[in-house]
Amino acid sequence: MSKVRILPAASKLFGDIFCPPDKSFSHRAAMIGALSMGQTVIENFSFCQDTWSTLHCLELLGVGVQALTDQSKVVIGSSGKDALTEPTDILDVGNSGTTLRMLAGITSGIQGLSILTGDQSIRRRPMQRIIDPLRKTGIIIGGRAQDKYAPLYLVGKNPLQAFQHTLKIPSAQVKSCLIFAALWGDGPSFIEEPIASRDHTENMLRAVGGDIRKKDGVIQVFPGKEMIARSFYLPGDISSAAFLIAAALLVWGSHLIIRNLGLNPTRIGMIECLKRMGAKIEPFDVSEEWGEPRGHVIIEHSELNGFEINQEEIPLLIDEIPILSVLATQASGCSIIKGASELRVKESDRLQAISENLNSLGAQVKETEDGLIISGPVTLKGGRVKSFGDHRIAMSMVIAGLIAESPIEIEDIDCISVSYPNFFQDLHHIGYRDFEFFPDNDIKNSSGKEKS
Prior knowledge:
The protein is globular and about 60 Å long. Helix content is about 30%, strand content about 25%. The strands form six sheets. The chain has a five-stranded mixed β-sheet. A four-stranded mixed β-sheet has the order 2-15-17-16. The protein has helices at about 25-35, 50-60, 95-105, 130-135, 145, 170-180, 200-205, 240-250, 270-275, 315, 320-330, 350-360, 390-400, 425-430, and strands spanning about 5, 15-20, 35-45, 65-70, 75-80, 90, 110-115, 140-145, 150-155, 165, 190, 210-215, 220, 230-235, 255-260, 280-290, 290-300, 310, 335, 365, 370-375, 385, 410, 435-440, 445.
């Protein structure tokens, strides 16, 4: 496990940059390619640990996968969803909850036994939220600790029973799991979504011919239509861009343009929140492809005010809560986050991790049952913090280090590669070079030279 020492930023950040391809889109494009007849070409694919897990699992289902990393491209070959076969081995999703939950929906329609598991973090995350509704389809499914956790076992069949289900928790992963299973239904299935979550799965399935409708908050899945493969050029990941956006807002004099970002209304909650805070941030040249808006964003250093986020907004910015919390420490007034209990069952208990780390740096953070109360502005001091093995916590602490009064050392930063392998290279690209790595007891700086 590696550490990194982050020194305060010595100069403004500036530049014109493309952020990493969107991980959420990459998972879905690969899975939808597996369900479609023909060859799916996915350009601007996100190659990170999580998406490699998805590609490997699809291969175990009999899908042809060609990963062209030097071209940021993946080619998926499939004869359609009914050609998928019983996996030849355990489906190990690594650290990817998205992979596990969505593949549970897909394997529900594959005759035979599927066993799904992941790393220690995955085996602590709640799975009853997919087990209970999937049982409505007539399959055999269960999990460890009386269906609470992975590993999961699943005996799929085709066709599945059509079903109706109301989502108790706004979760795009659970929703997508059920949509995928409904594609094998013996009739239309109906999934009620009281609070909207990201809708990439619905948009991409429509793009290949899936009959997915939505009316009055109910997603209607009509099976039977053959889905035909197509090409996808994926947008950049706004959840990864959030860290560079925060860096530009916090470091005095900074000016940054980020290109080709996905700007789906169900993903831009952070941008809307930042505008309420007084941030100088503006999308431009926005266009739309297969139902998904994308464009560029310009950001300038800004004086920020406190904010309030309620439960209805959480699905629109849930991945950005850690970095928004760092911004809140520098905003004037009190910032309140409510309805975010789902953050307690992510890669870490993110509410606890954020509170512990920021308070250790001199912030004023109060942890509540389902959120945080953060007072600002405060001067962050240096010190040592933990990533808790969580990529978003690790990157948030890196950005906190840019504006601290003395260096911050972050333990176990290897987890960043789960979603943003080129994070430090991109920071270097926009002008921040004041970091030092400590791998295997050898101290190295950003240029890779050993230091005595």
